[in-house]
Amino acid sequence: MSALLEARGVRKTYGDHDVLKGVDLSVDTHHVVCLIGASGSGKSTLLRCLNLLEVVDDGEIWFDGAEITDPRVDVDDVRRDIGTVFQAFNLFPHMSVLDNVTLGPRKVRGARRGDAEERATALLTRFGLADQARKHPDALSGGQQQRVAIVRALAMEPKVLLLDEVTSALDPMLVGGVLEAVRELKAEGMTIVMATHEMQFAREVADEVLFLESGVVCERGTAEQVFTDPSDPRTREFLARHLA
């Protein structure tokens, strides 16, 4: 199986701080890859490099058979097929939920309003948000806003979905609903790269887990391998703190 999304020796530096130090990543279609590690380990920066929000300083990123770090590539064209959801929901506060979800398909994909609204309504219904469609984001709970952000990304029909700590900003009582939405996406075969602090969830859903520390992938393997029998002492120390 050829990888849908790959990072090859990716390096990213801010000033004199090396955030990513030659990271390799390979994501097959329909697989879920979870990035774990402490805050500041490079997980979010890696995701931002994968969707070209950050320019890599060295290395290559390949998506759907093409090198997207080639300077001749149309960045906006690439991003149409890479959905991204951040921990800070980033919904447009002056627009209704329905308008938030349909904006991309209409303006970027060229969908007719009626078609975009029909698909958006179906997605909102699927994620238990149909009755929120006409409301503005500030009328929703944090968990509802995060699910709207996921729906907005899905409305673009991406080939891969990047999730950056999507539960970190939520009250613990609201985390479950968002994680359940991700479970459903995995069950349907969505390709996902997810940075998360939810260790038990990563253990449950991931086809592969990467443990990052200080911009380096210290360990990679199946969820069973990484969580049950990690080989690197840094991984063992991290999991001892976070699985206790």
From TrEMBL:
<keyword id="KW-1003">Cell membrane</keyword>
<dbReference type="GO" id="GO:0005524">
    <property type="term" value="F:ATP binding"/>
</dbReference>
<dbReference type="GO" id="GO:0016887">
    <property type="term" value="F:ATP hydrolysis activity"/>
</dbReference>
<comment type="similarity">
    <text>Belongs to the ABC transporter superfamily.</text>
</comment>
<keyword id="KW-0547">Nucleotide-binding</keyword>
<protein>
    <submittedName>
        <fullName>Amino acid ABC transporter ATP-binding protein</fullName>
    </submittedName>
</protein>
<dbReference type="InterPro" id="IPR003439">
    <property type="entry name" value="ABC_transporter-like_ATP-bd"/>
</dbReference>
<dbReference type="InterPro" id="IPR017871">
    <property type="entry name" value="ABC_transporter-like_CS"/>
</dbReference>
<dbReference type="InterPro" id="IPR027417">
    <property type="entry name" value="P-loop_NTPase"/>
</dbReference>
<dbReference type="GO" id="GO:0005886">
    <property type="term" value="C:plasma membrane"/>
</dbReference>
<dbReference type="Pfam" id="PF00005">
    <property type="entry name" value="ABC_tran"/>
</dbReference>
<keyword id="KW-0067">ATP-binding</keyword>
<keyword id="KW-0472">Membrane</keyword>
<keyword id="KW-0813">Transport</keyword>
<feature type="domain" description="ABC transporter">
    <location>
        <begin position="5"/>
        <end position="239"/>
    </location>
</feature>
<dbReference type="InterPro" id="IPR003593">
    <property type="entry name" value="AAA+_ATPase"/>
</dbReference>
<dbReference type="InterPro" id="IPR030679">
    <property type="entry name" value="ABC_ATPase_HisP-typ"/>
</dbReference>
<dbReference type="InterPro" id="IPR050086">
    <property type="entry name" value="MetN_ABC_transporter-like"/>
</dbReference>
<keyword id="KW-0029">Amino-acid transport</keyword>
<dbReference type="GO" id="GO:0015424">
    <property type="term" value="F:ABC-type amino acid transporter activity"/>
</dbReference>
